[in-house]
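Title: [Solved] Indole-3-glycerol phosphate synthase 3D structure

Original question kept below for reference.
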Amino acid sequence: MTTALDRIIEYKVDEVATLKRERPLADLEARLKTARQPRGFAKALDLVAARDENALICELKRKSPSAGDILPGADPVAIAQEYEHGGAACLSVLTDGPSFGGSLDDFQAIRSVVSLPMLRKDFMIDPYQVVESRAYGADCVLVIMACLSDAQAEELTGTALELGMDVLLETHDEEELERALKLPSPLIGVNNRDLKRMVTDLSTTERLGPLIPEGKVLVAESGVSSIESIDRLRKTGARRFLIGESLMKMEEGRAQLVTKMRVTGTD
Ligand SMILES: O=P(O)(O)OC[C@@H](O)[C@@H](O)c1c[nH]c2ccccc12
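Solution (posted by the thread starter after getting help):
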């Protein structure tokens, strides 16, 4: 059966081949020389979690395969500023065009006005994309275990770490978690959404969170749609959360909700 993730990877392969032709790796590497140093993504999360508050990675995405249009006509720069005002620790910006309506232009526009560390959220299959992310000012990249072999995940992670970026290793089940724990990045995302079946269930974090050993850190991803869901996941020890849809969809009060989500459970 072809899954939604398979379809995305299929066009990513073509996309990357075209990009490499249009803009050779050497061009990107030249641009790296003038890029500013990465801002510590994992460190920004740690600083908030150390206060026992909730470290929020607030996400910008225009649409998604599971939700359809999220906020058509949204101004990602204005929303990113609201996230920053609300006290987000970091940002996540979808740059995939076909499925999520994002772009590196969006990424760059946000980068130039917001000082928070930024995750470039895309489907990484080739180190070219990692170098490209750094050239555009990314501080962290996503490595999705579900669509990569061990060798690919290792190569992507190694490339990002060498460039001084952090790496969020995304897992969805025990097998992926076991593979991710062998890689040299401490940031372990547990995606509550099954990217193959597009079903979201917070109990994924409750099941996998406790299996993450000391020295590695849990990031609970997807389906965190309310204060209640944060309170629920805090009980499993989660202090770092990646939140998109519920914040994007708000028409007002976005910064206030970010603040509430950041402090819930601490009083
Ligand atoms: O919008 P949500 O349910 O709050 O989820 C955010 C984020 O976790 C989700 O966008 C995501 C997690 N892993 C991904 C991988 C690819 C694309 C998207 C994602």
